[in-house]
Amino acid sequence: MAVGTVLVTGGTGYIGSFTTLALLENGYDVVIVDNLYNSSKVAVDRIELISGKRPAFHEADITDEAALDAVFAAHPEIDSVIHFAALKAVGESGEIPLEYYRVNVGGSITLLRCMAKHNVTNIVFSSSATVYGDATRVPGMIPIPERCPIGPTNTYGRTKVMIENVITDQVEAQRNNSKNAGKPSDEWNGALLRYFNPCGAHPSGIMGEDPQGIPFNLLPLLGKVATGERDKLLVFGDDYASKDGTAIRDYIHVLDLASGHLAALNYLREHKPGVKAWNLGSGRGSTVFEMIKAFSKVVGRDLPYQVVERRQGDVLDLTADPTLANKELGWKTKLTLEDACDDLWRWVENNPKGYRQDPPASFIEALKANKA
Q: Domains (ranges, CATH) in the chain?
């Protein structure tokens, strides 16, 4: 019998698919909702290949309340939600802000309305370190703790802050309404997971990030440079106040990030804390040039890059202080930057077309042998 049933919005996307895998491997049943805007349904097949379990899948848009309502109605066993579905490109968010507010904020409101209607009371929200903005503006806030003042510098980050506020208001209102009605007041709970830069792939080599179009994150872009799909990497600015002039980020293996979402869900179910925010990061900052060097080493050759102007909304340093998650969730990163580079290269080198090709037969055989 399953521990519980979780609705994962955006569950065929990069982090959503790995979190679905972690949930299935830890006794949960999973229902995925995804509109496949920036992902592939093939991810469901890969999840099943690795875990031996298949999540239920519904192609639906997070902003379509009737479609979302139908999913909840079809699965009355759903007791929790992990919410990933969103537009997520910092640069693009400044070009089409209304679409980002419509999808990210509007979609979250729709989701919460359906949750209330179907009495689903736990939500883990995939937020972002971008909510902090430029943490160097406040003394003593690098690495960034949860108490760092919120101050996003781009539209994407502002949508995440707004969703955090909407979730907080809804959880608190539902708790107060229950209390006033003489009912248990601790049923509604929310986790706000502010995570840093996800990277890596499944060590089996059959599951990874497969963005539809140009990827927005550094390592997937490097992967496309390594396979020859792109001529070079664009480095946005080398005039930051860092040791080599490039921006500093906290890179976290996607398997560690998925286990963090699982830990947060378990914490909500066990402790019923109301709304809590946690940073999911490694606590180690790496510059863009350091990342290029690390990935080039795995590939076995120097990868070409070109320095261009900074992007609007980018900040110097986004390095996490993960102490609170380490302590309260009993969670910490286990995999290294080298692991992430190795796993990513195994994925992109052997699956240059991502999910639009069959994985190497030898990888499938190795996976079966590991299970035996």
A: 5-371 (3.40.50.720)
